[in-house]
Amino acid sequence: MAENTFKEEREKLFYEQKNVRDIIDDAEMKLSDAYCERYKAFLGKARTEREAVAEGIALAEAKGFRAYEPGMALAAGDKVYKSVRGKALMLAVIGREPLSKGATIAAAHVDSPRLDLKQVPVYEDSEVAFLKTHYYGGIRKYQWVTIPLSLHGVVVLKNGETVNVTIGDREDEPSFIITDLLPHLAKEQAKKPLAEAITGEALNIVIGSLPEKDDDGKDRVKFHTLRILNEKYGITEADFLSAELEAVPAIPVRDIGFDRSLIGGYGHDDRVCAYAELEAILSVDKPAKTAVCILADKEEIGSEGVSGMQSEAFETFMTDLCDSQNVPLRRCFENSFCISADVTNAFDPTYPEVSDKRNNARINYGVGIAKFTGARGKSGSNDASAEVVGKIRRVFADANVVWQTGELGKVDEGGGGTVAMYMSKRNIDTIDAGVPVLSMHAPYEIVAKLDCWMTYKGIRAMYNAE
Fold first, then answer.
1. DSSP string of 169-211, one letter each residue
2. What span, in angstroms and rounded, lies between the C-alpha atoms of 35 and 23?
3. Could you tell me which residues come within 8 angstroms of residue 409 by beta carbon, excluding any fewer than 6 positions away?
4. Domain check: are 286 and 364 in the same one?
5. Is residue 242 part of a domain?
6. Same domain membership, residue 185 and residue 315
7. What residues make up the domain containing 373?
8. Contact 253/99 with Cβ under 8 angstroms?
9. What are phi and psi of 179, to 5 degrees?
10. Domain end (from 249, 275, 309)
11. Based on the domain organization, do 48 and 96 belong to the same domain?
12. Number of domains in the chain
C-alpha cells in the first residue's frame, strides 16, 4: 500500500517529460505522418522567403482567404491575407469577439541562412566562371563548400519587367558548387580555426568553364556563360545590379533514419514553424478571438527592413482590421497573445558539452517552449512572464499537446534571439514555442516528425482557445 501511495505521489510531485510516441496512439501517429508529408511538400517548394510567401498565398486562397483591401467590410469568420512586397505574409480569420478583446497571434519567419549574390557577381579567373556571394544570416562557412547549390530569386530589368529565376533543383538542370582544397594540399588550411579556414570572400560559386569558341576577346568563359543566361532569361550582366538572387542547397527533402521518424531538409529554421502556423490558421473557422498568422522576413539578420518584424507593415495590417471595428490598435495589442513560433536547438548527444541537459529540448518530446532566449544574461530576450507560461500550459493541456521546455545552450555558451522581443515591444504578451532542430543553420537540418505535429497542434489549439 505504501509503495502505491508513494508512486502516485511521486507522479504528482515530480516533473517528468515523456517521449511523444509513448503518449499518442496509432491513429494520431498516422495524422502526424500525413501532416509531415504535407510539410515536406511545402518545404520542397519554398526554398526562399519569396517562394514561401507565394506558396502560402496559394494554399490560403484554396481555403477561401481573400486579399485584403483597405476599407473592406469584415465579419466574424471572414478570412483575409496581405502580402508584404512578396517577401512576408500576414493572414487573419476574424473572430466572434471584438478586437478590443485582443487577437491570438502566431509569428514565424520564412527567411533562412543562405548565400546572396553580390551586385556585380560574375567574373572569370583562369578560364573558370564564378559568382561572388555575400552570406546572409549566421552560417558556418565551411559547411557550404562542395555541396550542390541552386539559384532562386528575381531579376528586375531596366524596363521594369521582373524575371523569375529558379535553376538547379531538378535532376535535368545543372547545379552549382563552391570548391575546397584537397586534403593533400590543405596542410596550412587545416591549422586554422573552423571560422577562418573558409573565408566569406572564398564562397565563390562555379558556374561555367567553356570559352566562347569563335570569340577572340578576353573573359571568353564569362562571355559564354552570360550568353547562356541571356538566352534563357533575357538578362545581361548589368541586370544583376537590380536582382535578388539566392544560392541555396540543391538537396531534396528526405526522411531520415530506418524508422523514417526524422525529416532532413534545408530551411527548417524557420519554415517548419511557419508551415505549422499556416496550416493551423487554414483550419480555423470562426474563432472566439481573431486569429492572426505572420510569416515574416529578415529574422536571420535582426528583423530589419520593410518586410521584417520591426517594420510597421504589421501595424498597418492590424490597424486596418481594428479600424473596421472602431477599436484603437493599442487596446487590441495590450489584450493580445502571441506565440513567437521559432525553432529551438535539440539536445545533440554528440556535443553534450554545450547544453544543460536538464533544460534543453529533445527530439520527439514535443513542441519546445522557451520562456526566454537571448544570450548569457538573457540579453536580447523577451523573457515571458509566469502568467504567459501558465496560459499556454493550460491551453496545451486541454488540447493534449505534448510540450517540453528548453533554452539555447548553457548560460555562457552562446545564445540567440527570435521575433519575440519585437512583438513584446508592442505591448503584446509573447512566448517562444517551436520545433527542436538538430544541426540548426546548417545547409541540411533535421527535425522530428512528432515535434512538427505537436507544434502545429499547439498553434491550432491557441487559435481555437475560448
1. SSTTS--BEE----GGG-HHHHTS-HHHHS-GGG-PEEEE-PP
2. 18
3. 345, 354, 355, 356, 360, 415
4. yes
5. yes
6. no
7. 14-112+266-464
8. no
9. -80, 165
10. 249
11. yes
12. 2
| Dihedral of the alpha carbons of 363, 396, 88, 170, in degrees to the nearest 10 | 40
Output the nine-digit C-alpha cell for 227.
Answer: 550568353
* Domain assignment present for 254: no
Residue 387 and residue 347 share a domain: yes
Distance CA 93, CA 76 (A): 8
> 102 and 139: one domain?
no
| Of 113, 111, 118, 115, the residue nearest 86 (C-alpha) | 111
Q: In the listed set 220, 249, 278, which residue is the last one of a domain according to the structure? A: 249
Closest by CA to 428, choosing from 330, 342, 359, is 330
Q: pLDDT 10s per residue in the chain (466 long)?
A: 455 678 888 888 998 899 999 999 999 999 999 999 999 999 999 999 999 999 999 999 999 999 999 989 999 999 999 999 999 999 999 999 999 999 999 999 999 999 999 999 999 999 999 999 999 999 999 999 999 999 999 999 999 999 999 999 999 999 999 999 999 999 999 999 999 999 999 999 999 999 999 888 899 999 999 999 999 999 999 999 999 999 999 999 999 999 999 999 999 999 999 999 999 999 999 999 999 999 999 999 999 999 999 999 999 999 999 999 999 999 999 999 999 999 999 999 999 999 998 999 999 999 999 999 888 888 888 899 999 999 999 999 999 999 999 888 888 888 888 999 999 999 999 999 999 999 999 999 999 999 999 999 999 999 999 8
**Residue at 257 is within a domain:** no
* Shared-domain flag, residues 300 and 370: yes
SS3 state at 414:
coil
Same domain, 357 and 391: yes
Strand partners of residue 159: none
**Model pTM score:** 0.95
Q: Which residues contact 1 (CB under 8 A, 6 or more apart)?
A: none
